[in-house]
Amino acid sequence: MMRLTRAGTIAVPTRADAPRRHAPRGAGVLAALLLLPILWTGGDEALAQSSKAQRQASQQAQQRKLNDGTVMILSGYPGTSYFMMARDIASALGGSDDFRLLAIDAPGGTDSLRDLLLLRGVDLALVPANALMYANASATFGPALPQRLTYITELYSEEVHVLVGPTVRSSEDLRGKKIVVPLADGNAEFAVRDVLRRLKIEANVVKMAAADAIDDVRSGEVAALVLTGGKPLRFVAGLPKDGSLRLLALPFAPALRDGYSPSAFRADDYPALIPAGQTIDTVAVSAVLVANTTPKWDDSNRRIAKFVPAFFGALPELAGPQRHPKWRDVNLAATLPGWSRFAPAEEWLAKAREQQAAAMQRTFERYLSSARGPGASALSPSERKELFDEFVKWTRQSVGTLGQPTSP
Fold first, then answer.
1. Distance CA 220, CA 52 (A)
2. Cα–Cα distance for residue pair 249/273, rounded to 1 Å
3. Judging by beta carbons within 10 Å of its beta carbon (0-12, 13-18, 19+), is residue 322 exposed, middle or buried?
4. Angle between helix 109-118 and 186-199 (nearest 10)
5. Does position 405 have pLDDT exceeding 50, yes or no?
6. 169: how many CB neighbours lie within 10 A of its CB?
């Protein structure tokens, strides 16, 4: 408030002249206490965010590890040979977080090829050679298919079994008749339709459970039941020896050259259906392990590159007595004309050939040393080459297929 001075002037009070007001005792302590929950809450939120970020990082790392180590393969529907083939491979490889093979049920035939080309996440497919050749020749999925697909290897071949009754004597007798293929076996259906098309035989192909169709074959209501699979098929081997059924000969013909190979059934394959000493000609179709190698599948290619040595190394286990005997027929050195092999698989095989050649040379040298004895006259280069060639020929006939590379 203003006041009058002795000099008659008016004085305005300053801040210093104002009366001092003291804060209530304890107010600072109260303010600090009120701030503590805010500080604690902020700290909890920071810790929660940090913990969440760590969990997310751990989950992302686990996700990358699982995806990098998991190869997805199209097989077949339950009950089909490709279903069992894929699960044999998965079992032989074992399973872990570092690497595993995940088999996916697939329709078979060209439909499996379509799924390999178009479905996301699929790395490999088991595709019959006849479907592969047909899709390429007909451009079913567009031109230049061998530039979009590569193969890892051919696996074992599967024979075409044509079961008929007493009245059917040759494939010509199937013309205009009803032919049954098993339910959900796209490979068998494709093989039947493809063979009939190539041989220019028109017939009515229907789907039915094999166990239900067999009586219709006996009665003649159905001309044939066609199954595909590596001999001996358990279903065929279990048929009675009563003369009501037999295997129809399907001789190899020039029209079946691409995608098929000649094969035969003998008495030891099906003693109830084939008399001793007789042979029934048929054709076989190889299963091919195929990969999609278009540029957008780079992650898939890296996974397949990890799969190749694991799978090739597991072949001795697959050829064991607990597996189908056809696994012993796998020849990694066999090629698929007109198609390129997946580069890491080709590199693995080249390394195997080099190591086997070196091992064979060492074995040959030991053989010469022991067979000729000390003091024997030196062989001329031509004599040495001739002996080595004979030794290699004998070794290949004894060993057969190309196996896992051995250390020099």
1. 70
2. 12
3. exposed
4. 120
5. no
6. 11
Is 80 exceeded by the pLDDT of residue 263? yes
Q: H helices within 94-156, ranges in order?
A: 109-118, 129-138
Q: Considering only CA atoms, which of 266, 257, 318 is closest in space to residue 289?
A: 318
Lowest-pLDDT range of 38-42, 166-170, 290-294, 343-347: 38-42
Report residue 5's pLDDT band, with 50, 70 and 90 as the boundaries: very low
Residue 189 pLDDT greater than 70, yes or no? yes
Q: What is the rounded distance in angstroms from the CA atom of residue 398 to the CA atom of residue 392?
A: 10
In a 10 Å sphere around its CB, with 0-12 CB exposed, 13-18 middle and 19+ buried, how is residue 285 labelled? buried
Residues 6+ apart with CB under 8 A from 319: 327, 328, 330
Q: What is the pLDDT of residues 67-111, one digit of tens each?
A: 677 999 999 999 999 999 999 999 999 865 578 899 999 999 999
Strand partners, 228: 160
Tokens 């002037």 -> residue: 9
CA gap 174, 368 in Å, rounded: 60
Pair 81, 187: CB distance under 8 Å = yes
Tell me the C-alpha distance between 385 and 244, whole Å: 58
Report whether 200 contacts 278 (CB < 8 A): no
Q: Give yes or no for a contact between 274 and 267, defined as CB atoms under 8 angstroms apart.
A: yes
Asked if 289 and 155 touch (Cβ cutoff 8 Å), the reply is yes
Dihedral, CA of residue 372, residue 373, residue 377 and residue 379, to nearest 10:
40
Give the chain's length: 408
**Token representation of residue 203:** 């017939």
The arithmetic mean of pLDDT across residues 128-135, rounded, is 97
pTM: 0.77
pLDDT digits (tens, 9 = 90+) for 380-402: 778 777 777 777 777 666 554 45
Rounded to the nearest angstrom, the gap between the alpha carbon of residue 331 and the centroid of all alpha carbons in its chain is: 16
Task: Give the Å distances, CA to CA, from 144 to 149, 235, 274, 381, 389.
Answer: 9, 39, 44, 48, 40
Is 14's pLDDT higher than 60? no
